[in-house]
Amino acid sequence: MLAVMKGARIRIASHRGRAAAFLLAGAAVLLVLAVVLLAKVRAPGPVVERKYLLSPVGPVGAADAFVWNRPRGAERFFLELMDQDGTLLWSQATRDTMLLLPDGLGFSANRVYRWRITYTFADGVSMPTNDETFQVLSPPNDPL
Question: What does residue 91 show for φ and ψ, rounded to 5 degrees?
């Protein structure tokens, strides 16, 4: 690119030179914008995972219902209940965020059980939760 100084103005000697000058000016503007935007970006805070499986969780006095949160966009849910070895004891599909334990299905005291929900979204994508565990405590002995 050949530039000729004429007074206080700079004249670009060719059309290619003008195009190159405009490209350089555009690149400089983009670079300034990128620096300004990056300066405004802050380091993210701690990530807080939303707890989806609500109840039963941990040691409980009774477990007759399963309750969970609905992730945004989830339309259908599939609950799986397993013993601590992973043997499936019961499963049920629903569109609600709660299922009652069916009659005849009970829990042994002080035994650990696992459950999870598989969410299905409007686009057909399914996503399972991590397993949650609970344990139904044995009732205290009644005094005589």
Answer: -145, 155
Which pLDDT tens digit goes with each residue over 86-118? 999 999 999 999 999 999 888 999 999 999 999
Rounded distance between C-alpha atoms, residue 119 and residue 48, angstroms: 20
How far is residue 92's CA from residue 81's CA, in Å, rounded to a whole number?
A: 9
Q: Which residues are within 8 A (CB) of 65 and not within 5 positions of it... i.e. 6 or more apart?
A: 55, 98, 99, 100, 101
Residue 124 lies in a domain: yes
Domain assignment present for residue 123? The answer is yes
Q: Are the CB atoms for 77 and 94 separated by under 8 Å?
A: yes
Domain around 100: 53-136
- Indicate whether 142 belongs to any domain: no
